[in-house]
Amino acid sequence: MKTRSAKNDDLRSPKGMRDLVSEEVFLFQGFLEKAAEAAIYYGFKPIETPVLEQEELFTRSVGEDTDIVSKEMFSLKTRGGDRLVLRPEGTAGVMRAYLEQGMSALPQPLMFYYGGPFFRHENPQRGRWRQFYQFGLEILGTRKSIADATIINLAKIILEEAGIKNLTFRINSLGDADCRGAFRRDLINYYRKNVRHICVDCRERLKTNPLRLLDCKQPGCIAIKAEAPESIGYLCASCKTHFKEVLEYLDSLGVNYEVDNTLVRGLDYYTRTVFEIFTESHTDDGELTSLALGGGGRYDNLAKTLNSKKEVPAVGMSLGVDRIINLPEYIRHAPRLLKKPRVFFIQLSFDAKLKSFEVIEALRHAKIPIQQSLSKDSIGAQLALAEKNGVPYTIILGQKEAMENTVIVRNMDTRSQDTIKIDKLTEYLKKIK
Ligand code: HAM
Question: What pLDDT is recorded for position 7?
Answer without folding.
Answer: 57
